[in-house]
TrEMBL record:
PANTHER family: GLYCOSYLTRANSFERASE. Coiled coil: none annotated. Transmembrane segments: none annotated. Pfam families: Glycos_transf_2. It comes from Funiculus sociatus GB2-A5. Residues 18-121 form the Glycosyltransferase 2-like domain. This is Glycosyltransferase family 2 protein. InterPro entries: Glyco_trans_2-like, Nucleotide-diphossugar_trans.
C-alpha cells in the first residue's frame, strides 16, 4: 500500500526548493524550522519532514501544521537509521529542483530562499550545469559568523579547494541540485546510523563547483544531544562509514599535513571497525606511512574506547 505522501507527491507540481528536515525526538525544537518557513519571502518550496523513528509526538505536531500551513508539508516516517538515510529517503521523494537540508534545531532569516534563488539565478545558464549549488554562512544567536567568512564574496570553487586554499572553518549552509544528490547518494552501511556528510561533498567536488557567498542566512544552536556535540561517540559507533570517509580523503589532492591527520584517523577507525593491523597495512597505498602512524592511531582508538564505551573490545 502506498503512503499518503507518495500519493500526494504524484499529484503535486514541481517546486524550486525542497526543504528537508530529518528529525529524531526534536518536537521541542521543530517549531523553529516551521516558523522560519512560515516567514519566508519566497514561497516556491515544499517541506519534507523525515521522522527518523521518533518516539515523541512529532507526527501529531506535523499533522497539526499540515492543516494550517500555507505551504505544502509532507511527513515521512522511517525506522531509526540516521540522518544520511533520511536525506536519501527525502531525495528520492522530493519534487523540487534544489534540495536544502534544514536541521530541526536551527532557524533561518526570512529571505533565505529568496537570497539562495538570487545567487543561483546569477550563475549563467551556460555554466549552471557545472554547479551543484550555493553555500552561505551560519551565525550564532548573537549574529556572529561561525568559523570564518569566505575571503571574497561569490567564490566559485568546491569543498576540497575551499578547505585547502582558504582554510574553510566553521559550519556553512547551502543547497544542492537534487539530480546531483541522486547521482551521489549517501552510502548506507548496515547497522550504522551515522555517516560524515563530507564524504559525499568531497565526491561531488570532483565533478561540480559551488558558489560561496558571504551572507549569514542560518542561526545555529548546538544542543547537548546533537550530532556535533557527541561526535566522537557517534563516529566510534559507526566505524565503517567513518573509516570510508578518511580512506577516500587520503586519495584527494590535499597537502601531506592534512593527509597525515586523516591517515591517523583512518587507522583509528579501522581498529574500531575490527580490522586487524595486517589488513590495514595490506589495503593501504602508503604502507610506510601506515607503519609509522599505526601506533598513534591505536592510541587514539584506545582513548576512544575508554572515553565513550566499555562495549568495544580491545584488539
Amino acid at each position: 500500500m502506498k503512503s499518503t505522501f507518495e500519493q500526494e507527491v504524484k499529484q503535486s507540481d514541481r517546486f524550486q526548493f525542497t526543504v528537508c528536515t530529518p528529525t529524531y525526538n526534536r518536537v521541542y525544537t521543530l517549531h523553529r524550522v516551521y516558523e522560519s518557513l512560515k516567514a519566508q519571502t519566497y514561497r516556491d518550496f515544499e517541506w519534507l519532514v523525515v521522522d527518523d523513528g521518533s518516539i515523541d509526538n512529532t507526527r501529531e505536531l506535523v499533522e497539526q501544521w499540515q492543516q494550517i500551513a500555507d505551504f505544502p508539508i509532507c511527513y515521512i516516517y522511517q525506522e531509526n537509521a540516521g540522518k544520511h538515510v533520511a536525506c536519501n529517503h527525502a531525495v528520492r521523494l522530493a519534487k523540487g529542483e534544489l534540495f536544502l537540508c534544514f536541521d530541526s534545531d536551527n532557524i533561518c532569516v526570512p529571505n533565505t530562499l529568496e537570497r539562495f534563488k538570487y545567487h543561483w539565478d546569477s550563475i549563467s545558464e551556460d555554466e549552471k550545469d557545472k554547479f551543484v549549488g550555493v553555500t552561505a554562512l551560519c551565525m550564532d544567536k548573537h549574529g556572529r559568523v561561525l568559523g570564518n567568512p569566505f575571503p571574497v564574496d561569490a567564490i566559485d570553487s568546491n569543498e576540497i579547494e575551499m578547505q585547502v586554499k582558504c582554510g574553510l572553518a566553521g559550519e556553512k549552509w547551502g543547497f544542492h541540485r537534487i539530480d546531483v544528490l541522486k547521482e551521489f547518494p549517501f552510502p548506507e552501511i548496515q547497522g550504522e546510523k551515522f555517516l560524515a556528510e563530507g564524504l559525499v561533498w568531497n565526491r561531488i567536488s570532483t565533478k561540480y563547483k559551488t558558489r560561496y557567498v558571504n551572507e549569514k542566512l542560518q542561526v545555529v544552536e548546538y544542543l547537548t544531544d546533537g550530532l556535533t556535540v557527541s561526535s566522537i561517540e557517534i563516529r566510534a559507533k559507526s566505524p565503517k562509514g567513518t573509516r570510508l570517509y578518511y580512506q577516500e580523503y587520503l586519495s584527494l589532492n590535499v597537502p601531506l599535513t592534512k593527509k597525515f591527520r586523516n591517515l591517523i584517523n583512518y587507522i583509528r577507525f579501522s581498529f574500531h571497525a575490527g580490522i586487524n593491523p595486517l589488513k590495514i597495512l595490506i589495503e593501504s597505498k602508503r604502507r610506510i606511512l601506515v607503519v609509522l602512524f599505526m601506533p598513534l592511531g591505536y592510541v587514539f582508538y584506545i582513548k576512544d574506547v575508554c572515553q565513550v564505551s566499555s562495549d568495544f573490545k580491545l584488539i
